[in-house]
Amino acid sequence: VNQVANLALVSSACDMVSTAYASAKDSHPYVRSVCDAAEKGVKSVTEATASCVQPVLTTLEPHVAAASEYASKGLDKLGETLPLLQKPVDQIISDTKELVSSRVADAKDAVSS
């Protein structure tokens, strides 16, 4: 999970969502009260679940470690195959706009000639 969260694409997307969420909360009082209530509910459910799940996690720890190592290797391979994952969202959007603009200009030139 940490490895996925540290990917530039995922990290920047989370930052964008977090900023949008905070902005929505700050600009609408009714949304703020609903969000605050939802946050409290999620926090209490998480705390209650954590205490119940801990004994199971302790038992499954060797299996979780093996699965984590396997997933980490898979993510490394995915990162090599898709370098896009190492770029932040803003850069991907910018690169895509440039590519589309270039292709449109090429098509326009081809049609003109």
Could you explain how this protein is built, in words?
- Keywords: Lipid droplet.
- By secondary structure, the protein is mainly α.
- Helix content is 89%, strand content 0%.
- The protein has helices at 2-5, 8-27, 29-81, 89-112.
- The N and C termini lie far apart (53 Å).
Highlighted features:
Perilipin; 4 helices; 89% helix; 113 residues; mainly alpha; PLIN3 protein; lipid droplet
List the helices and strands and how they pair.
Elements: H1 2-5, H2 8-27, H3 29-81, H4 89-112
Give the overall form: flat
Strand content: under 5%
What is the CA-based Rg, rounded?
Answer: 22 Å
What is the first-to-last residue Cα distance? 53 Å
The averaged pLDDT comes out at: 90
Main sheet summary: none
Helix content: over 70%
Order of helices and strands: HHHH
Low-confidence stretches: none
Strand element count? 0
- Provide the structure class: mainly alpha
* Distinct helical segment count: 4
